[in-house]
């Protein structure tokens, strides 16, 4: 089994701590991200991840991180994320009480950005556990929208396809950047994503 590789040793603990905050939900109950109107259908579902900067950054980061890690995570992380999002989506549809969803979404961008910036290579199960926490948050936010959508099934199909597209973009960019200066540009991009997470966290 490949051991976690990271210079310094403090970042994994920081990322785990951020994940814990997402679970604890230290902010008020989520409401800002949830669409209150009746938007729905395939087009709305496909456009939403592409036009929502927070979701785009997180899903792009999943693909980028998988490409940076190499091996099975190249495909296992992007496949697992939308599958686990379904669980969060069902929780949102059922109205399962959860708080701190917005905080969890912002922390997902920050933590994934840091993982890329510091080239953190945990065991595959550790990476999957991390993204599972954040996938629940992203899925819940969108699942809460589905009951009010004009066509929930078409909306969900569009959203999943857009999510997969963003993951593929992240993988493509990551694999390309890994060939340039030993992946330093990937790490710079990860730092930029982490800054985006800070922005969403404070706003």
Automatic annotation (TrEMBL):
UniProt source species: Breoghania corrubedonensis
Residues passing through the membrane, by range: 48-67, 74-93, 99-118, 125-143, 155-177
Key words of the record: Membrane, Transmembrane, Transmembrane helix
Source superkingdom: Bacteria
Cross-referenced InterPro entries: HupE_UreJ (IPR007038)
Pfam families membership: HupE_UreJ (PF04955)
Name this protein carries in UniProt: Urease accessory protein
Coiled-coil spans in chain: none
């Amino acid at each position: 089994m490949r051991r976690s590789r990271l210079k310094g040793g403090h970042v994994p603990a920081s990322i785990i701590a951020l994940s814990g905050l997402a679970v604890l939900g230290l902010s008020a109950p989520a409401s800002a991200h949830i669409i209150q109107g009746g938007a729905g259908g395939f087009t709305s579902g496909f456009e939403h991840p592409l036009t929502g900067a927070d979701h785009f950054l997180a899903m792009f980061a999943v693909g980028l991180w998988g490409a940076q890690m190499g091996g099975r995570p190249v495909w296992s992380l992007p496949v697992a994320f939308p599958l686990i999002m379904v669980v969060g989506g069902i929780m949102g549809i059922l109205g399962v009480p959860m708080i701190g969803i917005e905080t969890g979404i912002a922390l997902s961008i920050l933590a994934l950005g840091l993982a890329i910036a510091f080239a953190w290579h945990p065991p595959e199960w550790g990476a999957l556990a991390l993204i599972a926490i954040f996938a629940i948050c992203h899925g819940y936010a969108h699942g809460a929208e589905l009951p009010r959508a004009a066509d929930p099934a078409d909306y969900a199909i569009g959203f999943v396809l857009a999510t997969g597209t963003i993951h593929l973009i992240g993988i493509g960019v990551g694999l390309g950047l890994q060939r340039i200066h030993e992946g330093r540009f990937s790490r710079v991009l990860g730092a930029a994503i982490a800054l985006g997470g800070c922005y969403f966290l404070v706003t």
